[in-house]
Amino acid sequence: MRVIDAHIHLADDHPQVVKLLETLELKLLNVAVAHDRSGAWRARAAAYRRASELHPQRYAWCTTFDPPNLQTEDSAEEVGRDAYIREIIPPLEADLLRGAIGCKVWKNIGMQIRKRSGEFLMIDDPIFDPLYAFLADADVPLLMHIGEPLACWLPLDDDNPHAEYYRTHSEWYMGSKPDHPTHGALMAARDRVLARHPRLKVIGAHLGSLEYDIAEIAERLDRYHNFAVDTSARLRDLARQDREQVRQFFLDYQDRILFGTDIVQRRPCGDLDAAAREARLESLQARWSREIAYYAEGEMVLPTGHRLQGLALPYEVVGKVLSGNAERWYPGV
Predict the structure, then answer these.
(1) Minimal CA–CA distance to 110: which of 28, 26, 172, 196?
(2) Burial (CB count <10 Å: 0-12, 13-18, 19+), residue 97
(3) Consecutive H or E run containing 227
């Protein structure tokens, strides 16, 4: 069965990597991320583009855009919005001509970037409206990573499934930052974009940052027909919920859920010695095989020896989740 990992960061044209993708019938959608205005993301995007040009059956790519400089651009004023859209649209158009099939917006909007007033820049700020209109007119999907898991605002105890990440990435832990937007505020801002731009196709990365409760995801999918979600880096959150309810969620929304892993590999296999390269390839194959098995099989045995109940979805539903939905939501993949 063909598989599309619709959310990954791995541009590697090493022959052994390409061979692994061929063996697994796997295609990767590499996603560019703009952490700041430095433009450093463009080197990574260029690597994603080259991989897609060299191996179009195995790689596709998603571009992004620089966030606004709100020390000089006022999002509340029309002149600020005009200046910003003139800055970001031409390079975005160029990336689309070079084969990009989507556009990504990252969590620094809403969680990190502030206006001159000290307010946080939110994803529904008017400065972004011309961008959304452009993407909708061009039928280019927007991959939104807005907010973080709800665990980001909760105590870092044994009940927190993401505690380890936030212990080592304290800059993103909101439990110690009461002056930052709440999880609810970030979700509400994203929802307002969905309502205001019904022609804009939006894929909510990481289960739309609603990973803690599939009922919350379902409520948004019912309300916004331009919205889908990917599963990237949130399998553990699904596995913590009632298995039958999760399975029914996949059956009910089988056309709106995209498979993704959010694997991040910055160092190409060509820079590794033979032993490290083999270990990398084995790790990649194990990760993809394990995540695919969760949707397709019943009981699974994890590398740790623990047993996990897979969803054992019908074959046609597995096909939609693993590739069909990516083909529908990302035309050209």
Answers:
(1) 172
(2) exposed
(3) strand 227-230
Cβ contact 140:96 at 8 Å: yes
For residue 60, the SS3 value is strand
Distance CA 156, CA 162 (A): 8
- The CA distance from 124 to 316, in Å, is 36
Query: How far apart are alpha carbons 214 and 162 in whole angstroms?
Result: 17
Q: How far is CA 19 from CA 23, 43, 65, 288, 326, in A?
A: 6, 25, 32, 15, 22
Give the integer Cα–Cα distance in Å for 228 and 210. Answer: 12
Q: How far apart are CA 73 and CA 130, in angstroms?
A: 15
Q: How would DSSP label each residue in 238-262?
A: HHTS-HHHHHHHHHHTTTSEE----
Global pTM reads 0.95
Tokens in use for 146? 């807005």
| Kind plus residue range of the DSSP H or E element containing 184 | helix 183-196
Domain boundaries, the chain: 3-329
Digitized pLDDT (tens) for each residue of the chain, 333 residues in all? 999 999 999 999 999 999 999 999 999 999 999 999 999 999 999 999 999 999 999 999 999 999 998 765 555 566 578 889 999 999 999 999 999 999 999 999 999 999 888 999 999 999 999 999 999 999 999 999 999 999 999 999 999 999 999 999 999 999 999 999 999 999 999 999 999 999 999 999 999 999 999 999 999 999 999 999 999 999 999 999 999 999 999 999 999 999 999 999 999 999 999 999 999 999 999 999 999 999 999 877 665 556 788 999 999 999 999 999 999 999 999
Select the CATH number that applies to the domain covering 3-329 from these four: 3.40.50.1820, 3.20.20.140, 3.50.50.60, 3.40.50.720. 3.20.20.140
- Read off the tokens for 207: 């289960």
In sequence order, what are the beta bridge partners of 156? none
Residue 295 is encoded by which pair of tokens? 């949707």
Count of alpha carbons within 13 angstroms of residue 33, beta-carbon side: 18
